[in-house]
Write a structure and sequence with these properties.
162 residues, four-stranded antiparallel sheet, 4 helices, flat, disordered C terminus
Length: 162
């Protein structure tokens, strides 16, 4: 007997969380020699469960205060109940490839974060970035605090776009 339709978006998302507690790391970052959950793997794990619960996912490119951003929207189709989150993009490069990388990166992290789903110890290369920064620090005469990688925007979350 099929499960009853969820009555609220919260109930539908709880079903998704119960079905997908973790997303497997299925991709390799050759720069940092680390594994991470790529967008196709995230979508393969999550979309069927959203669809079973009659939840529509949209992630259009938008803007936030004039800067590029990703909007993650989840709508329970039976009721129209909706949650939307807008996440700014931090561009590593100011070109189409930089935008594409940032979009892919933020789509995956915005979706995982909005749904409360994790990957196995996924830091998307941040530990490797920190180790490299510490190694680089040994070659320059600078305080340790300056060795922590920070994106051009000033955000420590801008690194590791992939």
């Amino acid at each position: 007997m099929p499960a009853a339709k969820p009555k609220t978006l919260g109930e539908a998302l709880l079903r998704v969380q119960q079905s997908v507690s973790k997303v497997a790391k299925d991709s390799q970052n050759p720069h940092f020699r680390s594994a991470y959950a790529g967008l196709p793997g995230v979508m393969d794990a999550i979309l069927p469960e959203l669809q079973k619960s009659n939840v529509l996912l949209l992630q259009p490119l938008t803007n936030l205060d004039g800067s590029p951003a990703i909007e993650t929207s989840l709508t329970l189709l039976d009721t129209g109940e909706n949650i939307t989150r807008v996440t700014p993009l931090t561009l590593a490069k100011q070109d189409p490839q930089g935008v594409g990388s940032a979009v892919t990166y933020m789509r995956r992290y915005s979706l995982l974060s909005t749904l409360g789903i994790v990957t196995d110890d996924d830091d998307d290369g941040n530990a490797a970035s920190f180790k490299q920064a510490v190694a680089d620090k040994a070659t320059v005469d600078a305080p340790f605090e300056q060795a922590v990688p920070v994106a051009a925007s000033g955000s420590p979350f801008g690194g590791g776009i992939g």
